[in-house]
């Protein structure tokens, strides 16, 4: 479940969020706080730092905590985070009880520790925004690399074709050279045999070498 989905589930538990079906945009679900909108609650994140982090390879090996730190999202001093709340809701203390009872237990627990439930919601929204920005930047980075790889692949393919043509031409030249050499050697041997035969009338043995191989 993503952060926004987890936010819905936790909001239902906490009673600080309500889900209302919008009257427009094809029945899209709109999440609202009962007293203040999420946009008013959530602060700005350091999107530029998140983008810089997304540009550091290997991009997708960055853990979420590193992304949140880059975005400037600080862990609360009281130690209550959405992650802690999620784990708490998965324990036997809350998992097998009715929603109303679980909501009351959570409300009492948070109030007893001086924690405002809206603060957890705000942090979840900020984390969701940080992850979305990181994904967008990392995706752009990967797409740039993919385009560069495609260009290089095309260049390599063109080079391979050019080298194949060059190799074919070299093979053709070498074959022609070998053929010409064989033809020349045939003429050379014939001429040397004639030389040896003529000189043999003048000197014996003949000094003319004849290569018959």
The residue ranges in which pLDDT falls below 50 over 5 or more consecutive positions are 16-36
C-alpha geometry:
rod-shaped
Mean pLDDT: 79
Task: Tell me the total number of β-strands.
Answer: 2
Describe this entry's structure for a reader.
The chain is mainly α. It has one domain (3-156). The protein has 8 helices and 2 strands. The chain has helices spanning 3-14, 38-41, 47-54, 64-70, 82-89, 92-95, 99-112, 117-199, and strands at residues 17-21, 29-33. Strand 1 and strand 2 (29-33) form a beta hairpin. Helix 1 (3-14) runs antiparallel to helix 8 (117-199), helix 3 crosses helix 4 (64-70) and helix 3 runs parallel beside helix 8. The chain is rod-shaped, with a radius of gyration of 41 Å.
Using brief descriptors, characterize the structure shown.
213 residues, mainly alpha, two-stranded antiparallel sheet, 8 helices, 66% helix, rod-shaped
Q: Would you summarize the structure shown here?
A:
This protein is 66% helix and 5% strand.
Topology:
Layout: H1 3-14, E1 17-21, E2 29-33, H2 38-41, H3 47-54, H4 64-70, H5 82-89, H6 92-95, H7 99-112, H8 117-199
Antiparallel strand pairs: 1-2
Helix pairs in contact: 1-8, 3-4, 3-8
